[in-house]
């Protein structure tokens, strides 16, 4: 059963097509990583799922509910962690959560416990009485996460959840996402960090210029598009061009990585190619980044 | 970090969800508990200053308007201006800041609340404050000799209804302007004339006919008339017209405010 489906969704802002015919399915209880560079349409997609941006065409279904028609009902069962800090800075951490606990219709007698639990999950119990505007960037991010989880949602949308976080907090957040998923919560997480998507997502959907350019489990995407192994060649520009041309003649994909060229799907390369290339390149495992660059022509972090 | 997850109950949400209004009020009450002293001080002192400056000052030149001593005429009129300023500026500035700078509404809209509930919740809170602070001028006027009457019990309701209309007008303005500086135009061109041509300081019966006709379009004029008729217990069927105008004004502003705010908040 799918928790979220988008079918041919299009959103334009004036002349700019932010999301262009996006079709996506997120099975219940899985984590889908929406991967793409800034401006790929990830945040617009997230906001269409919450009904804050209206699609020009296409269908969106969230937890069996049509969006935007039934978006309020859908939002009651989803938690949203936005990219930008939109906490109520004048309120304390606890008061921020109390407002949302009320909004999510948590019964009054259970509200304090729900707030305590959410603050505990993100390790902010000791700062619960601090005004949100006085918290550090990392703490604000954690409070945003607590706000999105206070009502134990069935679907969690995380929009670039680890941007600007130090490695320790990022690792803690990854553990949290893992736990959510193992407990059956569906997670849609947009990110432009390849490592994050590879580490957390059951499925990865790659977006570029508003379009979906690839979707599947990370390993499967890699096997399908770039194989298991890559040869990396360094040298002069002329040498790199020769490598790329030889690979092209042999029908093997390549990827330019700044000072080098990677010959992808190396395990399938014909013996004649190795002879053409002469000195063997540095052999490495392929990555999700190889897939992304191959499919989009864009570099990501 | 560790997490415990319980499945949420998918109780159907209503068009006007009490929890949505309660959430807005939870926030407002929390903030108000911090600044109620300064707000209340201003609400009580301002009418006193008006009564001292205009009541005693003008009052020495104009002893009475009809049978009503000028200071009592003024004290009852200032109810309307207190309601106007309490509601319209809160509607304008507060909602603009929350929408544009603090992104509070953006955060709320990712949860089960719609634009109309935000607008209604904010307007109800502002008009409740207007209902309370609108009574402050009466208390001040009583210090200057205004006799208590049972009709005064109607004043909070009149202030609430008027405050609701002007709070929604303020929210409409906040959703319409491109920047916070634009409020200067609205204050100078709309709010100040409404305040001055409402019958607060002088009776409009002696004004030119065109000014009287314009005053009929001014919701604040109807508030002033209604408050005076209530306080002096001279209520008549025409007061139903005043109340109907205020109700119509609130309904119209509400419709426009929700519509305009929706355009601002939903892409």
Give a quick precis of the structure.
Chain A is an alpha/beta fold and 301 residues long. Helices cover 37% and strands 27% of the residues of chain A. By secondary structure, chain B is mostly helical.
Question: Helices, strands, pairings?
Answer:
The complex is a heterodimer of chains A (301) and B (267).
Chain A: E1 2-13, E2 16-27, E3 31-35, H1 42-49, E4 57-62, E5 65-67, H2 71-75, E6 78-81, H3 93-103, H4 108-121, H5 137-149, E7 155-159, H6 167-182, E8 186-191, H7 194-200, E9 203-208, E10 211-216, H8 218-226, E11 229-234, H9 237-249, E12 254-256, E13 260-263, H10 271-277, E14 282-285, H11 288-296
Parallel strand pairs in A: 3-8, 3-9, 6-7, 7-8
Antiparallel strand pairs in A: 1-2, 1-4, 4-5, 9-10, 11-13, 11-14, 12-13
Helix pairs in contact in A: 3-4, 4-5, 8-11
Chain B: H1 18-59, E1 64-65, E2 68-69, H2 70-101, H3 104-108, H4 115-133, H5 136-143, H6 155-176, H7 183-196, H8 209-216, H9 219-231, H10 238-265
Helix pairs in contact in B: 1-2, 1-4, 1-5, 2-4, 2-5, 2-6, 2-9, 4-6, 4-10, 6-9, 6-10, 9-10
The rounded distance between the terminal residues' Cα atoms of chain B is 35 Å
Identify the CATH homologous superfamily of the largest domain in chain A: P-loop containing nucleotide triphosphate hydrolases
Largest interface, Cβ cutoff 8 Å: A-B, 49 and 36 residues
* Count of helical regions of chain B: 10
Give, in spatial order, the strands making up the sheet with the most strands of chain A. Answer: 6-7-8-3-9-10
The helix/strand order of chain B is HEEHHHHHHHHH
> In one word, what is the shape of chain B?
elongated
Strand tally of chain A:
14
Number of strands of chain B: 2
Domain count of chain A: the total is 3
Cα separation of the termini of chain A: 33 Å
Per CATH, which architecture of the largest domain in chain A? 3-Layer(aba) Sandwich
Structural class assignment of chain A: alpha/beta
Kindly report the oligomeric state of this protein: heterodimer
Low-confidence stretches of chain A: none
